[in-house]
Amino acid sequence: MASTRVHLVLVHGLFSSAKVWRAFETLIADDPELAGLVSVHPFEYDSPLGRLRPDRRVAETDDIADQLGTFLETELADAERIVLVTHSQGGLVVQRFLARKLWNGEGAELARIKHFTMFACPNTGSGFFLTMRKFLKLWNNPQEKQLRPFDRAVTEAQRTVLGSVVHARAYSDTECPIPVRAYGGSTDEIVPPIVARGLFPKGGVITADHFSIVQPADRTAASYLAVRAALLEVAEGPSAIRRPPAPAADEEDAAPDGAGTTVDAAGGVPSPAADAPGFAPYPAPPYGQLNDGQLKGKDRQELVAYLLSEQAYQQVHIVAGLGGSGKSRIALETAERAQRAGRRVWWVSMPELSLRMRMIARDLGAPSINVERAWLVGQAMDLVWTFLDACPDPWLLIFDNADEPERLGPPDGPLAAGTGWLRKPQNPRGTVVVTSRVRRRHAWGEIGRIHQVLPLDEHDGASMLLERTGGLGGTNEDARGLSRELGGLPLALRHAADVIKAVNESQISLGSDIRNFETFRRTVNTSAGQDGPQLSELLGREIVEKVCGIGMNLLTEHDLPQAPTLLKVFTCLSIAPIPYRCLLSGPALAQSPLFPGATAESTNAALEGLEEVGLVDAYEREDVAHRELAGMLTLHPVVHGVLREDEEVRARPADFYGVALRMLLSATDHRNPDHPANWPLWAALAPHALEVSKACLLGEPRLSDRTVRTEALELARLTARYLIATGLPAPAYDLVVPLIERCASFGFDEDDREILGLRHEHGRIHLDREQLTEAERVLSLVVRARARILGEDHADTLASRHKLARAIHEQTGRQTEAEAMLRSIVEAEKQVRGHEHYDTLVVRHTLARTMQALGAHREAEAEARQILDISRRNHWPPATPEVLRVRETLSHSLLSQNRAQEAEQVIREALRDASQPSDSNLVMRLRYTFVLVLLGIRGRTPEAVSELRTLVLDLDRVVSSKHPLSVQARALLDKTLREMPT
User: Of 151-160, 213-222, 916-925, which range is least confident?
Assistant: First the structure.
């Protein structure tokens, strides 16, 4: 029998101890309702002000988080109900503990934690300790460092807790729903209430200061009542540790198909418990760039203040200016301050527009069944804005580097119509900020207010130079002279400062004799200073080009000749963050004529050199478990654009784009885009794959190397498959259709096998969008061409034949036609791939569904049971989407044979094993099947009606009344109620 005892774990704060909890321990022991129900466990850790002994260190927050994990595993190994209550820094320790567990895929171990309450936790940092540091210059306490405003480790842990704990909808390895409450003290000067509440939606403010908040005087104190309520709630709740459900693929057919498919020998069964990008916690803005120093310019500071003011609510603000003028920095400063003030913030990088907007929908609580359908049928923009306008919290949405404004508009209308991604918020506390080089009013219409960002004046530019060089570059007047020469462009100033600092700190001797501001100014020798605030875009690019050239020359003379070449290869990718470790780990560089003799050591040295002179920014994403994806590198869009037009790149495009292409292909080799386990990798690489494949095939200058063009087509096909599998058909369509229509321009025919691979994906897009007639038309042509060129039973032809049969099967009255096709495909698949290959079984399941629709219920049952036997023999996880669907089909076949009790057992087990979100299309369908089964059992109609009413309510909550499943469920409820005896 499960124990009802609740184990309360108390975690103290910075420079404190377990003694702080004595008041709570005494009150709980004297509380007649809690005394025999709750066991109290103070968790003690070492938190000294500092260490005098050099052989001992002060434990860091991660150390304490791991120590807490050990405490729970050893001291409370048998506890089924755990409540965590923390004070001050203790809240950060628990957040870090939860985040690290989730990052390591150990979310299942958190299921016994039933509640988490924080008192006075510095969720956005404590400015109090910054004041203390001014008087304690040598104070170096790693625990205190994470209490500073917006420590990055704290921010990333908190985002994971918010996304995968507070807003979690399922139990899995990567998320675990736990009620979280955050309370602040009304008179707390150390951690003010707005800081203590942070972004956590539930909690409140208690009449207390920083210390009395955890020292309740009696059982009527608000802090005690909050903890008491949590303990009683947990004691009365279920203790069972539930494993379903977790986000997973919900595509109709996750099997790999199409030209050049590579699968595992066992058939490549998809993992059911991988993180779909749309379900992952929304990533934080790139706050690491704020380390460049304080924002310069009074006009810029005033703009940030305005964007944060109430006057900016319900408006779109276009922050427009030259490339390199600091627009993104203004937006980032605004984002950081908004988040510290308790607003929800979403940063959208334009190369990842569709994916990021889908993640926002999920972050706002849009049910997955709603998200899936909206992205399939073209209603995504309306869905996101419905949730944005209904959001109860103040929020800030930022579109960064929107240099093609039309991309933010609707697909069939102008941007100014306000029906696309960019709209004026109806939410009274919503603000939209767009950064763009486009300053023309007619490009934006009346949708937003344009704020022009001018270059820095010479005084602010000089201040930036002096601070970034640490005073190594010369006098104030010298700095002002260089600032004028560089036109006040922050990007150029930053690069110049980094070069001067690198020269001075490395003691490098350059032929150009650059040492300080004055020598750098003479080397640049532009006429920018004459233009002042009216600096042109063309001249601005010229300045950046010259400054970048100086940095690259410095690296070449410093025996790093591969560094400039590597930088130019990076510019062939997208402006999105680059996961450089997975790209550089393959053989592409060593095999390229651009990098003779390249080794891992020389590549790492080149990367370090590029970062030292400020040409790239490298950082680690701490919310990413896999090291190969955690390391990110960014280039400024102006540097990206300037070097992409470099003479060497334009003279040798096949070499530069070819190595970028092969890095991507190497990184994705044997990483099937249909398998959810590979989606985190594909999510990081997809913007670059889109950019490189389009540039190689449709860009200028045209590539003469046909091998590179052929490889680009393969990369495009794989990328389209990833986008389709993750429910992003719009960018997949935008990728494949232009390549199909313009294939002759890059030397291919529409019936070449490479183009047929894209045409196959085109048909899949129509099929997933339920455009069945068009899917049949496209796939019929593909099947005919593939059969002629490759043969009737080639693996690629079979893949297209299966999709065509599905398109026919889904059309009313055409199941007999589909059955004949499917039987032929199944026999061919057995010969080509084998009886137990995943693809073979997927086709067999489609055949079973067709037989069920035709009334051959025994045959359908036999087929479904054979598929399930093979899946168990090959150890496929029971939560694999296709396995769940086969169990659904088996339930229907049993029900049709009046074997409803057997069907009940099958569908109950499917619902138990499902690891998808409870509001996903797949789980909703399983619940509907469960209702049908109950209706087939004598005496179970009232139970079925109760389940069906709940299902209808859930569907009404998450989808429109016109959704097919909602229409079915409501019609069944009405029919059942009419037929029930009164």
Answer: 151-160
Strand segments (E) across 721-840: none
Count of Cβ atoms closer than 10 Å to residue 291 Cβ: 9
Provide the 3-class DSSP secondary structure of residue 452: strand
- Residue that the structure tokens 């090291």 belong to: 627
Closest CA to 287 of 634, 675, 711, 660: 634
Q: What percent of the chain has pLDDT over 70?
A: 86
Which residue is it, tokens 């232009």? 738
Q: What is the DSSP letter of 111?
A: T
Residue 96 in this model has a pLDDT that exceeds 50 = yes
- Residue 277 makes CB contacts below 8 A (sequence gap 6+) with 355, 358, 359, 679, 680, 683, 726
- What is the CA angle 955-957-960, rounded to 5? 65
Cβ burial, residue 607 (10 Å; 0-12/13-18/19+): buried
Query: What burial letters (b/e) apply to 335-361, b meaning 16+ CB within 10 Å?
Result: bbbbbbebbbbbbbbbbbbbbbbbbbb
Question: Three-state SS string across 214-228, please?
Answer: HCCCCCCCHHHHHHH
The neighbour count for residue 294, using CB atoms within 10 Å, is 10
Q: How far apart are CA 512 and CA 522, in angstroms?
A: 10
Q: Is 666 exposed, middle or buried (0-12, 13-18, 19+ CB in 10 A)?
A: middle
Task: Please state, as a whole number, how many other Cβ atoms lie within 10 Å of the Cβ of residue 271.
Answer: 18
Beta-bridge mates of residue 449? 317
Strand 6-11, strand 38-43: pairing: parallel
> Is residue 107 pLDDT above 90, yes or no?
no
3-class secondary-structure state, position 696: helix
Tell which phi-psi region holds residue 87, choosing left (phi > 0), alpha (psi between -120 and 50) or beta.
beta
For the four alpha carbons of 575, 581, 583 and 584, in that order, the dihedral sign comes to positive
The helix/strand/coil state of 378 is coil
| Residue 282 reports pLDDT greater than 50 | yes
Q: Residues 236-274: pLDDT tens digits?
A: 775 544 333 333 333 334 333 443 333 333 344 444 333
Percent over 90 (pLDDT), the chain: 46
List pLDDT tens digits, range 629-651. 888 898 888 888 888 888 999 99
pLDDT tens digit string along 677-727?
788 899 999 999 999 999 999 988 788 899 999 999 999 999 999 998 888
Q: What's the rounded Cα separation, in Å, for the pair 859 and 494? A: 71
SS (H, E, C) 29-67: HHCCCCCCCEEEEEECCCCCCCCCCCCCCCCCHHHHHHH
d(CA 938, CA 202): 45
Beta carbons within 10 angstroms of residue 309's beta carbon = 10
Tokens 């209702």 -> residue: 931
Total residues found in the chain within this entry? 982
Could you report how far apart the first and last alpha carbons of the chain are, in Å?
A: 41
303 vs 329: CA distance, rounded Å = 12
The closest alpha carbon to 571, from 504, 513, 521, 642, belongs to: 642
